[in-house]
Write a structure and sequence with these properties.
It is built from one helix and no strands. By secondary structure, it is mainly α. The longest helix has 18 residues. The radius of gyration is 29 Å and the shape is elongated. The protein starts with a helix and ends in a 56-residue tail after the last helix.
């Protein structure tokens, strides 16, 4: 009889734990901010490993999410 009581307590405890767990928040999409580039600024050509304090952005493209399109079945 004590085994059935322990099983019942285990089941009730598992149900309470499942019901009271915190709900995870859905992740928010990240916002991309394009860097500001000065007109007429020279592009540095660096060969080798050096430390650059003022970097430059040559191109910027916002990458989105494209749905995967598949055709089902065989050809």
């Amino acid at each position: 009889m004590t085994m059935w009581v322990q099983v019942a307590i285990l089941v009730v405890s598992a149900l309470l734990n499942y019901a009271s767990r915190p709900k995870p928040e859905k992740p928010k999409p990240q916002e991309a901010t394009a860097p500001v580039v000065e007109d007429g600024k020279r592009i540095r050509r660096i060969y080798g490993t050096v430390w650059v304090d003022d970097s430059i952005v040559l191109g910027w493209k916002e990458v989105g999410q494209d749905p995967i399109r598949t055709k089902g079945g065989k050809k």
